[in-house]
């Protein structure tokens, strides 16, 4: 995977910025999310979405599975993400993905 993401300085004011696990997980999801619509094994994955599972997130971030669950729940409750789950995978959608990664300059 190659490319860049944008991270605005107002990220320092984000309500979860003081929690290293929350920051690490959110940035990981932001970096891993699709930047364009695509599909994988017949599953449509839209721009701003990431197909994954708890075990995979834990392995890739070195954050415990329980902490991953807690962080995802908090991100979901504060409207940062939505999650569509099946028994095989979850699709995490970053709400307002374009505000993080739009081509327009924000002030």
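-> sequence recovered:
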């Amino acid at each position: 995977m190659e490319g860049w993401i944008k991270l605005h300085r107002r990220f320092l004011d984000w309500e979860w910025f003081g929690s290293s696990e929350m920051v690490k997980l959110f940035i990981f999801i932001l970096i891993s999310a699709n930047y364009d619509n695509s599909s994988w094994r017949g599953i449509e994955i839209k721009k701003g979405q990431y197909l994954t599972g708890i075990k995979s997130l834990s392995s890739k971030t070195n954050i415990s599975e329980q902490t991953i669950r807690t962080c995802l729940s908090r991100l979901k409750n504060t409207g940062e993400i939505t999650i569509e789950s099946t028994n095989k995978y979850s699709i995490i959608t970053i709400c307002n993905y374009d505000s993080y990664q739009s081509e327009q300059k924000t002030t």
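The longest strand covers residues 81-85.
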